[in-house]
């Protein structure tokens, strides 16, 4: 017993000796921080909700990245969103974008609550938030409307929610995937809007897959669906196929929702790209 203890001590101390050269590492960017900070303009209740939104964002993006990396090369969900059977490079590209979203440097980046550009007030009832563009490339304003409309991650697949039937960005964490994609560190600002509707992004994966990994809504819906399949309803998710298979015999065809129009009271989501181009969609 005594001999054994001595041996173990020897092994441990020699491991320490070998690790010594790495003690002098010089990490690039000593200011690095992975988590977005909350601006001082946010009060106590806003801060507690935004910290939870950041937790949700981290859960969604880590799970999306991990799904892409664990799944191997023939996964139905990955093929559905990224057309990976025809464009296999989309899988590591998307995993890299999610890695940048969650672990990319957010030093100096913040979520603000004080409407510094006056756009929340100007588009009251329409703007849920916006990137400050040239007024502050690292700053994202969250308008009061967000606190009224955004849902927590725990409600994915709950309360009648189906992934294809509702805007992915109605969930706080998925909304932040969009907002943080405007940070320069994330994919160099190259994530775009080739297809914004659920049907068109599924079509994009089938017919124009080279665009799929760089399409914002594809990344958002994939993160949501991967969460649905991993945690919300494990192994099943809550997409239209599972739902119609279960209910096709008993449920009448639902009345289609009217098309959203700019005059609806649905909140508009606008943001400014690095090149100054403004992009708006109805609320997610
Ligand atoms: C924080 O600000 C929001 C928006 O103005 C307000 O609704 C909320 O009551 C405030 N919370 C506190 C603790 O003052
Ligand atoms: C920048 O701020 C001005 C007001 O100071 C505002 O009119 C303009 O819309 C802002 N730009 C962006 C991209 O938010
Ligand atoms: C595919 O994307 C290219 C480049 O954006 C576009 O010109 C083309 O029309 C797209 N094709 C389809 C079938 O959507």
Automatic annotation (TrEMBL):
Residues 274-284 have a biased composition (Basic and acidic residues). Keywords: Signal. This is Putative peptidase domain-containing protein. It comes from Wallemia ichthyophaga. InterPro entries: HRXXH (IPR029482), MetalloPept_cat_dom_sf (IPR024079), PRA1-like (IPR039124). One of its GO terms (cellular component) is cell surface. One of its GO terms (molecular function) is integrin binding. Residues 26-238 form the Putative peptidase domain. It holds the Pfam family HRXXH. Gene3D superfamilies: Collagenase (Catalytic Domain). Residues 242-284 are annotated as: Disordered. Residues 1-19 form the signal peptide. PANTHER family: PROTEIN ZPS1. The keyword Signal applies.
């Amino acid at each position: 017993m005594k001999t054994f203890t001595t041996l173990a001590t020897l092994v441990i101390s020699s491991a320490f000796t070998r690790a010594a050269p790495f003690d002098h590492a010089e990490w690039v960017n000593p200011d690095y921080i992975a988590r977005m900070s909350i601006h001082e303009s946010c009060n106590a209740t806003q801060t507690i909700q935004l910290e939870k939104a950041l937790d949700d964002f981290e859960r969604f993006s880590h799970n999306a990245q991990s799904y892409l990396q664990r799944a191997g090369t023939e996964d139905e969900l990955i093929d559905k969103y990224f057309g990976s059977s025809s464009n296999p490079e989309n899988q590591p590209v998307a995993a890299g974008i999610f890695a940048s979203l969650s672990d990319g440097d957010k030093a100096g980046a913040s979520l603000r609550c004080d409407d510094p550009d006056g756009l929340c007030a100007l588009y009251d009832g329409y703007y849920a938030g916006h990137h400050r563009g040239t007024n502050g490339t690292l700053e994202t304003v969250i308008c009061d409307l967000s606190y009224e409309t955004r849902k927590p991650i725990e409600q994915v697949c709950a309360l009648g929610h189906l992934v294809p039937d509702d805007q992915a960005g109605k969930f706080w964490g998925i909304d932040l995937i969009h907002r943080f994609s405007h940070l320069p560190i994330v994919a160099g600002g190259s994530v775009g809007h080739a297809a914004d509707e659920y049907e068109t992004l599924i079509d994009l994966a089938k017919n124009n897959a080279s665009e799929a990994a760089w399409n914002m809504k594809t990344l958002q819906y994939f993160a949501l669906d991967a969460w649905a399949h991993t945690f919300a309803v494990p192994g099943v998710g809550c997409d239209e196929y599972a739902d119609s298979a279960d209910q096709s015999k008993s449920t009448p065809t639902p009345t289609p929702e009217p098309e959203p129009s700019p005059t609806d009271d649905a909140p508009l989501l606008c943001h400014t790209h690095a090149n100054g181009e403004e992009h708006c969609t109805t609320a997610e």
